[in-house]
């Protein structure tokens, strides 16, 4: 999945952190001295689903609608894009900062749409909120691609170095809102390919709800994909320091081109996109999967997504083995296991770790359905893995997030009795502009005091799933430790589908 976007730099932490203090829940956070209290874990997946979707309202940029439910948020960044004569207001802040990074925002939108395509019938009353969350992302991507006829795609708003040097709420930030753009001479096939995937997946999600909007998204997806494929190159080079080290592409752009083509095939049923996948998938087929699914690596999900068609039309196809390899790398009992698990049972791959069990749980559930519908199992050495086993592993990850873990705490804000209080999140940690109209000046004493204070954040970012504990299940509730306490849109997005699945099964 690549490194987390701040593995190399987080300027605000470097400026503000003088000492790190451990804020506990009444037990020691020292390794080896965890006090685990006996408690009864009873998950409420419907509540988790509702809050997971609500989180996205806290990440909104732009003019907020009248039905905004996260009331401590207000309008922000209304002038985005005006410096280049384009309306780029709207969209989502990716995490606890105020930058709109196009690569993870497009991925977030793709996964929200995929969750709806696969599991909207399991969402009940929350389906309308899920579609609203998708549309907030897809509307922005339409704006970002409004000049695609001229081979122009806007892929970021906000200078990350300026932004990360200040601890300002989005409503009155005064950091640079520089726009990063790719074009024919400065391409970015990974971010363009992901944008095409997001638009195509959203088109499919809205196909039966809003035909006109669905068609608009699809037409734009086709254009963006053609641009991404025709002008090949990495935005690491074209955008440079604006993308790295925050969202560098570590896996190359071919997986995003294939990902976009697969979604265009699903949205159009045009065989030319299937031929594109068939002819080009060899370019990634030799890459080790190792649980590759996230904003950077799409490998495992590509194999899972195409398996549905292969099961139906060519069940002996060699590419089906790739999806099976992914499963065998992930199952705890598999002799081919290539993924680490914490002692408490959490899939662990590194910094901002919750993005990994979240994304992998979604594709486990999707693949389990495809296997079950075709009466298939997966063979890992001498061990036979049934579809129900994939569901069990996905459930274990969802339950860990909700409180079935060595800390006996939920890693979702607002869910359960114990949850993170000191998020690495500007909007949540700085008093709301409604309660404190005074502007918080960058590099001021007040700004520093807000970041360093021991008190919980004043604004509850309900539904936010944080980066989570380390490999030994230790979690330190300190906003300076962004790898553990920062939420992101791409952690929450796959959990919309996961919690939808389990909320439906819970009713049975």
TrEMBL record:
Note the InterPro entries from the entry. 6-hairpin_glycosidase_sf, 6hp_glycosidase-like_sf, Glyco_hydro_9, Glyco_hydro_9_Asp/Glu_AS, Glyco_hydro_9_His_AS
Catalytic residues of the enzyme? 424, 477, 486
A matching Pfam family: Glyco_hydro_9
Concerning Gene3D superfamilies, the annotation shows: 1.50.10.10
Family annotation (SUPFAM superfamilies): Six-hairpin glycosidases
Enumerate the catalysed reactions: Endohydrolysis of (1->4)-beta-D-glucosidic linkages in cellulose, lichenin and cereal beta-D-glucans
- Report the superkingdom from the record: Eukaryota
Q: Which residues form the Glycoside hydrolase family domain?
A: 45-498
Q: What is this protein called?
A: Endoglucanase
Q: Which organism is it from?
A: Zostera marina (Eelgrass)
């Amino acid at each position: 999945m690549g490194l987390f976007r701040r593995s190399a730099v987080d300027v605000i932490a470097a400026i503000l952190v003088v000492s790190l203090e451990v804020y506990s829940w009444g037990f020691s956070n020292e390794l080896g001295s965890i006090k685990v209290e006996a408690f009864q874990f009873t998950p409420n997946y419907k509540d988790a689903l509702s809050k997971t979707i609500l989180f996205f309202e806290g990440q909104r940029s732009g003019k907020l609608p009248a039905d905004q439910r996260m009331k401590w948020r207000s309008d922000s960044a209304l002038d985005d894009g005006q410096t280049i004569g384009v309306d780029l207001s709207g969209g989502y802040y990716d995490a606890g900062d105020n930058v709109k990074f196009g690569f993870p925002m497009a991925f977030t939108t793709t996964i929200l749409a995929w969750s709806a395509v696969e599991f909207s019938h399991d969402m009940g009353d929350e389906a309308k909120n899920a579609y609203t969350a998708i549309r907030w992302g897809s509307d922005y991507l339409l704006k970002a691609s409004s000049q695609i006829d001229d081979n122009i795609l806007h892929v970021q708003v906000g200078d990350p170095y300026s932004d990360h040097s200040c601890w300002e709420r989005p409503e009155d930030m005064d950091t640079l809102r520089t726009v990063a753009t790719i074009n024919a001479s400065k391409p970015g096939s990974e971010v363009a390919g992901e944008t095409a995937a997001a638009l195509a997946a959203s088109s499919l999600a809205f196909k039966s709800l809003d035909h006109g909007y669905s068609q608009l998204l699809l037409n734009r997806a086709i254009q963006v994909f053609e641009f991404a494929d025709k002008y090949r190159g990495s935005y690491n080079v074209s955008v440079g320091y604006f993308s790295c080290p925050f969202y560098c592409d570590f896996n190359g752009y071919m997986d995003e081109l294939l990902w976009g083509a697969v979604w265009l095939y699903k949205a159009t049923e045009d065989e030319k996109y299937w031929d594109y996948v068939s002819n080009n998938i060899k370019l990634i087929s030799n890459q080790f999967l190792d649980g590759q699914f996230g904003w950077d690596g799409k490998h495992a999900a590509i194999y899972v997504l195409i398996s549905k068609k292969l099961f139906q039309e060519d069940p002996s196809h060699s590419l089906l083995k790739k999806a099976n390899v992914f499963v065998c790398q992930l199952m705890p009992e598999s002799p081919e296991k290539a993924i680490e698990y914490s002692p408490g049972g959490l899939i662990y791959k590194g910094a901002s770790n919750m993005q990994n069990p979240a994304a992998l749980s979604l594709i486990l559930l999707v693949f389990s359905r495809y296997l079950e519908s075709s009466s298939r199992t997966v063979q890992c050495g001498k061990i036979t893995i049934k579809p129900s086993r994939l569901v069990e592993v996905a459930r274990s990850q969802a339950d860990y997030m909700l409180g079935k873990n060595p800390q006996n705490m939920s890693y979702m804000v607002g869910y359960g009795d114990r949850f993170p209080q000191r998020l690495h999140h500007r909007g949540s940690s700085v008093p709301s502009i409604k309660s404190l109209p005074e502007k918080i000046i960058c590099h001021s004493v007040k700004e520093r005091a807000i970041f360093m204070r021991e008190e919980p954040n004043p604004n509850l970012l309900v539904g936010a799933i944080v980066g989570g504990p380390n490999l030994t299940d230790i979690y330190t509730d300190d906003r300076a430790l962004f790898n553990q306490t920062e939420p992101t849109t791409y952690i929450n997005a796959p959990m919309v589908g996961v919690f939808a699945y389990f909320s439906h099964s819970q009713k049975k």
